[in-house]
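Review session, final week

We close the course with one last complete record, chosen because it touches almost every idea we covered. It is DeoR family transcriptional regulator, a protein from Viridibacillus arenosi FSL R5-213 with 39 residues. Go through it on your own first, then we will talk.
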Amino acid sequence: MSGIAPLEQIDYIITDSKLDKRVVSQFDDTNVQVIQAKD
């Protein structure tokens, strides 16, 4: 089995500060923390 884990199994996502706010909002109703890396 390969690919991305189901969202229930993802604790956090680390991304850069240019991440689209619409993308972040998709995780609002999950337990996923979106962590923005410092530039």
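Two points worth writing down before the exam:
The radius of gyration is 11 Å.
The chain has one domain: 7-36.
Good luck, everyone.
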